[in-house]
Amino acid sequence: MRLVYANARYEHHSAEGGQAHMRQFIQNAGALGHEIFLWHGVDQHPLTKPVPQGRLERIRFFRTVDVIYYRIEWKPPIGAKVILPPYRRMIGDPLIVWEFNTVPEYGRVQQAPEPLIESFVAEMKRLAPGVNLAVCVSRAIQKYVHEKLGIARTIVVPNGSDPELFRPDVAPVKRVQKSPDRINVVWIGSANLGWHNFDLLRDAAWSIWNPGEGDRIVFHIIGPGMQRMREAPPNLNYYGSEQYLLLPAWLSAMDVGLNVYHPGPADYSSPLKIFDYMASGLTVVSTEQPQAREVFQQLGQTDLLVPSDNPEALANVLRSLSTDRDRLHRQGAAGRKLVIDQYNWRRAARDTFAEIDRLLAKPI
After folding, report:
1. Count of CB atoms within 10 A of residue 72's CB?
2. Most C-beta atoms within 10 A of its C-beta, which of 26, 27, 85, 216?
3. What is the pLDDT of residues 351-363, one digit of tens each?
């Protein structure tokens, strides 16, 4: 299959989870034998080829491809007018796939004005008739895309991890001390995004520190954008940004992974960090979030879901885990097995391309 990977601003050395998703899509599509052409990327991946720059050359090129696959976040994709008449026939009527990683309402996290968000929704609705398939990373997004945007054919393909990259036996970073007398609790991600609930995390850390338990439960934050560290207790450490491919050595030094959100746009997401924690053999604790609940139900650990407005509940869950090493090991092993069996990028690519193959064999 010849596939144009569009609206994917790939940057090879980025620390962002979205870039990790793009890298894994390209690698696994290549492993399945597909030919990938990158359109709109910053860098070229070794397994991709560039789309021609000139307008006429690009039109002729599009007539040779099977699929144009757009990566969608919260904005309408660039270069999308070609999916509607009269342009669609000019480019040979390839299959059009949109992969939704979030929804336009994510703009509220970016402080975008409501009229702009509404204009993005309207533009996606206008383009929807040209979309043959929407690949949605969560059930919440699938419902939104079908009911609000009007895209008829949708599938759910959750995010995953790479259990060969993220493993419990990776040599841990020397910066983090491991001890049977403490648990290391980690949060990874882009700390500058407003949907992450750092008030909850900070207040839970203070709750643990104040009774003198700070040596037994230690917090570690890894990612760009953390602010106001002077308000954090001494048992909370911040290390700044790290390349995504180097995160396994940090996670192998940890015991518990945190996934903490404010209610709202995050309810649509498929939190990549959850699967990387699980692949690394960590026990995961999360605020209530739809896909987190699905995963926790599979693991039989819904008691590790906490309210987004109750730091004492989060502190108590961590206190309980700190005195139950057996459970940490059991949940960590079960989580890693679930990633190996289901929540991995190889499965995500296989499911995605199986559906594309069905449509190519019998177009709708």
Report:
1. 26
2. 26
3. 999 999 999 997 5
